[in-house]
Amino acid sequence: MLLALLLSSCHQGGPTFSDIAPAEFPPADARRPSPKTEAWWLALNDSQLNGIVARVEQGNLTLAQARERLAAAAAISHSASSGFLPNVALSGSATGSSSRTKVDDISRRPAHLNLETEWEIALFGQDKLAQQSADLDRYIAAEDVNAAKLSVAAEAATSYVRLRALQHQRKNVDLLSSAKAKARDVATLRSRSGLATRFEAQAATEDSAAMAQQKRLLDNAIADEIQRIAVLQGVREGDATLSAMRPQPVASNARVTAVPADVLRQRADIRRAEFAVLKAGAEVGIATSDLYPKLHLSGMIGIGSPVSGSIFGVMGGPSLQMPIFDYGKRLDVVEVKKAQWREAVAAYRQSVLVADGEASSALRTLLAARLETARANSAYATAQKGLAQAKLLSREGLSDASALVTRQIEAADTRSQLTEATKNEAEALIAFAKATGGSLAAQAPGIATFPDKRRKSGS
Q1: For residues 23 and 422, is the Cβ–Cβ distance under 8 A?
Q2: Residue 406 — very low, low, confident or very high, per pLDDT cuts 50/70/90?
Q3: Are 291 and 334 in contact (CB under 8 A)?
Q4: Alpha-carbon gap, residue 286 to 309, rounded angstroms
Q5: What are 268-320's pLDDT values in tens digits?
Q6: How far apart are CA 411 and CA 389, in angstroms?
Q7: Which residues face 111 on adjacent strands?
Q8: pLDDT band at 172 (very low <50, low <70, confident <90, very high)
Q9: What distances in angstroms separate CA 387 from CA 104, 379, 384, 394, one per listed residue?
Q10: C-alpha distances in angstroms, 199 versus 53, 190, 204, 408?
Q11: CB 177 within 8 A of CB 208
């Protein structure tokens, strides 16, 4: 017992994370608070989308599974260190025997009822390390919930953006189909008049058939997106109100700047990897503490019969278990835990590099999408002016019908391009929000590059 107490005073509770990790890693008790979830989808300024995201966060079954895993981890964390507190149990037994010998040993009496207690004293900080490890499991589960929430919200927003784009494309196809039908009629009339070949009339007829097929494909795609949104909400039937066409969500008004490293550190995968490093450090401490003696205190108060003296009995005392020879098994466990800690450090740094790349790529894609939307807007405005002029000339009898049909087709084509560009920009905004952990607000002069000093510090 004296040796165990001396070892505990030298060991100072076993190695903590700060003992084995680089100094730049924060200790577990200095853990950063969980970031506040930002409603990044509000940047798309669509009330129906806001309602969809709210229902997804409430009813999504993948998110529900993550929440249950968090509840399980929280329950384990609640009593993680209880194994190093005094335990009390009630036990009793009765045995029959032909012998009439009376036994005074309280633990061997033929009939006895005992109140037993046992206490493993945490000489080397095992209780704190066990609690720290369980708490970090809970933090990891909480980050899994955050990651699932961001993922399903982004998926729902993407489906909604695609749904609205498909509905507008369906309208575009109707306009284009109408223009193609007029072009077919003009080509047929010109062919009959000898002003065009039959090939031109046949090509125009085939274009009309292609438009009909495109309508069917778009109708199917619209139904698929509505069903996908329903599944994300955890229900079977899609919302009928989504079938009515509404304006496309527009991302151009969202203010987005460059991404500093502090924003990326709020990503759930990075925070999860950071907690995994901290947990691996605690596991090394637990494995190291197993190299040293364990001190147990136990006792029992009971009543039993038959005995020659008093039916009451008391027994107890300390016991010391000291590892001497186990073929190096405990040392091997320590080496395993250290290797797992080094693996967790590498995984953390890798997650930082991946996050930096994803955020940088997402920002470049968003900026490019905004330029394309501006170009498509300009092209559509020009096509609309041309169509207005063609209508005016047609009313005045200064141009033939084919010129007006050509302008109508050009206007429908540019409208389709604008619809697609608007969708791509909204999707790029969603991807950027996902890449930054659900944040659109960032203040920095340029893209974070994570220099070597930051990589070494795990920032």
Answers
A1: no
A2: confident
A3: yes
A4: 46
A5: 999 999 999 999 998 998 888 888 888 888 888 878 777 777 777 788 788 87
A6: 12
A7: 94, 305
A8: confident
A9: 111, 12, 5, 10
A10: 52, 11, 9, 22
A11: yes
Q: Which two tokens stand for residue 18?
A: 């700060």
Handedness of CA 337, 342, 344, 345 (dihedral sign): positive
* Rounded CA separation 288/280 (Å): 12
Q: Per the omega criterion (within 30 degrees of 0), is the bond before 306 cis?
A: yes
Helices 329-395 and 268-289, axial angle in degrees (round to 10): 180
The token pair that represents 281 in the structure block: 């450090």
Under 8 Å CB-to-CB from 141, ≥6 apart: which residues? 66, 69, 70, 72, 73, 74
SS (H, E, C) 26-64: CCHHHCCCCCCCCCHHHHHCCHHHHHHHHHHHHHCHHHH
- Contact yes or no for 267/38 (Cβ under 8 A): no
pLDDT greater than 70 at residue 136: yes
Q: CA 43, CA 60: separation in Å to the nearest integer?
A: 22
Separation of alpha carbons 69 and 59, rounded Å: 16
Q: CA angle, 147 as apex, 142 and 150 as ends, to 5°? A: 125
Structure tokens at 240: 């009928």
**Closest Cα partner for 153 from 303, 81, 52, 223?**
52
| Secondary structure of residue 249 in the 3-state scheme | coil
Residue 335 in tokens: 């080496």
Using the structure block, give the residue that is written with the tokens 């490093």: 277
Instruction: Give 55-58's long-range contacts (Cβ < 8 A, gap of 24+).
Output: 55/233, 56/152, 56/153, 56/156, 56/232, 56/233, 57/149, 57/152, 57/153
> What distance in Å separates the CA atoms of residue 17 and residue 74, rounded to the nearest whole number?
21
Which strand (E) or helix (H) includes residue 340? helix 329-395
